[in-house]
Specification:
By secondary structure, the chain is an alpha/beta fold. The chain is about 40% helix and about 20% strand.
């Protein structure tokens, strides 16, 4: 999941960890949740613009988010980020090719940066279309903004796989990789399929209605704790369901109370256990299966977790599935570097869980053809199973398959570049 932009080296960030700060803005955004085994990754609010961008709806959303953050912090929850998400940008800025659109989005980005929030403008291409100019435009948008995320829709219930949009998304990923340091601009772009409105996680988030909000969690440690002492998958599932409902119930109750108090619409919690620096979903799966991630029991473990996430007695929204972001999870990155799984296995796991291919490190010279093929597999899976999936691919300039890649970014872990074949 996309994180806030911080100008910290890994050494500097490690120093902050030594001072007891477990995540950026921890002191400013909420009390440490030392007594809990999960954190609130994001509170995301919907912003609807009419005929261009007038900032008053965004200002109202930020005011609400700050009140919501305080309400949760007062109860001891750590709230890591605040985010706003608009309806698909084409609905209020219909012609992305006009120079005035980039100007308007720069203004929105400045608002987001000044208010310390992240912003998603949703899918720019929603229909099955390929525009030759789009990739260059998208790369320019990434270069000229800091906090804006966006997507291209590559499958839908109405049309199935968007074959033309697959190429647009692939060209965009390659253009962003070639025009941003380390290719890291691709954190803010994804190809999406069947992602519902109201999803709190970025870059896929978009909202169809104003004055609505949803919540995303960082909860792999909760899963790991739930699996301790379990005798088999069925007992582990029972323990996880009970533990998650016990933990999420108060979060949901506070969300519903905030909605009543401020006349907002509470959409629910995306129960996806997004990983963090000290919260590995790979570790949680290994605690369940008793084997390294990527082994024969991994698929069954992913399916078992997803079954619980889909059947919680709590109002959920968004993906509510298993996230496997390779570069953001130390255990997943380690198992990838050990050669225990590859792109095909990630796609297999996505058939029973997940968000698709998320933050997958690829060779810098990965062709548009190969990128399109990988995105096409994700779109086909989403269409077959009518489930939300996305592809956030990360070609790394100058790196080949099998080579070690390191980052000074404190939210990325070291691993080996994966083969696109």
């Amino acid at each position: 999941m996309t994180r806030p932009t911080l100008n910290l080296t890994r050494r500097e960030f490690t120093g902050l960890l030594g001072l007891g700060l477990t995540w950026p803005f921890a002191g400013a955004l909420g009390t440490s949740s030392a007594s809990r085994d999960f954190r609130i990754r994001t509170i995301t609010a919907g912003v609807v613009f009419q005929n261009g961008i007038k900032l008053s709806p965004a200002e109202s959303a930020v005011a609400f988010l700050r009140q919501a953050r305080k309400a949760y912090a007062d109860e001891g929850y750590e709230v890591q980020t605040l985010r706003i998400a608009t309806q698909p940008v084409a609905e209020y800025l219909p012609d992305w090719k006009k120079p005035s659109v980039l100007q308007a989005l720069r203004m929105l980005d400045k608002f987001a940066v000044d208010n310390n929030v992240m912003c998603s403008i949703g899918p720019v291409i929603t229909d099955d279309q390929h525009h030759r100019e789009f990739a260059a435009w998208a790369a320019e948008l990434v270069q000229q903004t800091k906090n804006i995320s966006f997507t291209v829709r590559v499958a839908s219930r109405e049309k199935g796989v968007h074959h033309q949009s697959l190429r647009a998304a692939a060209e965009t990923i390659r253009a962003i990789a070639q025009s941003t340091p380390g290719g890291e601009g691709n954190f803010r772009f994804a190809a999406v399929a069947f992602v519902p409105e109201g999803t709190p996680f970025f870059p896929a988030a978009y909202f169809s209605s104003a004055r609505a909000f949803s919540i995303g969690l960082e909860s792999p440690n909760l899963l790991t704790a739930a699996f301790q002492g379990a005798d088999g998958f069925q007992q582990a599932q029972r323990q996880l369901k009970a533990r998650m409902e016990n933990a999420l119930g108060p979060v949901a109750a506070r969300g519903q109370e905030l909605a009543r108090q401020h006349r907002w619409n509470y959409l629910g919690i995306d129960a996806s256990p997004a990983p963090g620096l000290d919260a590995s979903i790979g570790q949680a799966i290994e605690a369940l299966t008793g084997a390294p991630f990527g082994g024969h029991s991994t698929l069954a473990g992913c399916a078992a977790v997803t079954d619980v996430l889909k059947n919680l007695d709590v109002q959920t929204c968004g993906y509510s599935g298993l996230m496997l972001p390779v570069l953001e999870d130390s255990v997943l990155a380690k198992r990838a570097s050990e050669g225990r799984y590859g792109i095909s296995e990630l796609l297999l796991y996505s058939s029973v869980c997940g968000t698709g291919l998320d933050v997958v490190p690829l060779p810098g010279d990965t062709s548009v053809k190969n990128l399109r093929a990988m995105i096409g597999d994700v779109a086909a899976l989403a269409t077959k199973y009518q489930k939300p999936l996305s592809a956030r691919l990360f070609p790394i300039p100058g790196k080949r398959a099998g080579e070690r890649v390191s980052f000074d970014n404190p939210f990325l872990t070291d691993t080996n570049v994966m083969s696109p074949e």
